[in-house]
Specification:
- The protein is built from 5 helices and 7 strands.
- By secondary structure, the chain is an alpha+beta fold.
- The strands form 2 sheets. It has a 5-stranded antiparallel sheet, with helices on both faces. A two-stranded antiparallel sheet has the order 1-2.
- The two termini are 35 Å apart.
- 34% of the residues are buried.
């Protein structure tokens, strides 16, 4: 565990403030759920909770099907990182934080469809060689949970079928998370 040198006191209601620098680094936003773990030696561990984490195996099967059906690289993310990818080497994207531009697309709650000549959006930090061609936010009860995306190496665009397919899968995953 990494020491930060920051000390916080618990208030009379049992609350503790997570410093802004740590929230920013870990992309913890207002209202984000946190899991709380305890260790035998007295440690208390806060971990960001991802409802999409429960669907990791299913998401892996879904992107494999999307990729094989379309011949394109596909991925599913939660709000913070890529949780499933197919069509490229998994180690290149799996587990990486989503790019700030993709995060903005998700927050916009609209399906993104890249036009020719438009500034490219990388799917994840450090993955600038890839360009998102379609990104459909996964919404559950109005909250953004992640997104379904197709991407290409270099400059790329896709058609209406891939747009509708990403939108359909994102809607399906959102409904699955509501149940």
């Amino acid at each position: 565990m990494k020491a930060t040198g920051i000390v916080r006191r618990i208030d009379d209601l049992g609350r503790v403030v997570i410093p802004k620098e740590i929230r920013r680094t870990l992309r913890i936003r207002d209202g984000d759920p946190l899991e709380i773990y305890t260790e035998k030696d007295g440690e208390v561990i806060f971990k960001k909770y991802s409802p999409m984490g429960d669907l990791t195996d299913f998401a892996g099967q879904m992107v494999e099907t999307l990729s094989k059906t379309t011949g394109l690289a596909a991925a599913i993310t939660d709000r913070d990182s890529v949780i499933a990818v197919c069509g490229v080497q998994k180690r290149e994207l799996a587990g990486r934080q989503v790019s700030p531009e993709l995060e903005a697309v998700m927050e916009g709650r609209q399906v993104y469809h890249r036009s020719s000549g438009e500034k490219p959006i990388a799917p994840a930090d450090g993955a600038e060689k890839y360009t998102v061609t379609v990104a459909a936010p996964i919404l559950t009860e109005g909250d953004v949970m992640g997104c379904v995306l197709f991407f290409a190496e270099g400059d790329g665009t896709v058609g209406e079928v891939e747009y509708k397919l990403a939108q359909t899968v994102a809607t399906f995953l959102g409904k699955q998370m509501e149940n």
